[in-house]
Fold:
Amino acid sequence: MPEKPLIQECCFKDSDVNIRIHFHNAYELLFVKSGKIRINIDNHAYEGEAGSVFVIGCFEEHSLELRSALYERYYVILDPLRLEYLIADRRLIAPLRNRPKGFCHRFDVSGCMDRIEILFRRLVQEYEGGGEYSDLMGISLVTELLILLLRSRPSARQTLSAPGNNAVFAVQTYIDSHYAEPLSISNLAARVFLTPCYLTHCFKEATGYSPKQYLMRTRLACAKDLLVHTALPVSEVAFRAGFSDVNNFIRTFRRETGMTPLRYRDRETQI
Structure:
């Protein structure tokens, strides 16, 4: 089975249309070139203007409302597994996947707007043109973008010790690949030679989620993706997302989204 490309979608837009709440099982970087917007990401509301970059994770539903007549933006949607495979320094990925206490989705890059726009323009060209070594070209551009984001806000860097960071990343990576299997905190902790209590502490501090919450969000992200992009029955969606009991899946889905899986599918597939 061929690997997914790193860049799932990338383009420049100057439309004056509000964007309803939606979801990608992928990472997104959105750069506001001009105009003003109000964006809601996972129930956090932000005002954005020229020089704003918003980072949106796999779990996060988001919507956008225009605040000015003119609005220009670039955005790129990235495959999480390819990004994490291609980037060596895991700290660069942290703003896309971790939500520690006090996290802000908005980065102010007004001090290097021209450089940011050049990178996004080149990403669009790479996405539209492709070619040999496309992933490597794309990852070089994305890496530079992520470095500039961290330089714009040094406090966004991970503050845990290296052993703590390494253990958290290892557990995240394992969950990302094995979420459909039965997993327990004790087994996850044993994989990184930590006690369940200490793993939970490190994980929560670094990511903003407990391991159990992260696992649940990963499963729900998979379920949402299957509901929108396949016609599989709810029972099969539940099984593929890692839920052993369809009734438990429906209850969990309703608690987390406010609607049943079928209602969610109907909403997302409306024209």
Q: What stands out?
A: The chain has a mean pLDDT of 91. Residues 255 and 262 are 14 Å apart (CA to CA).
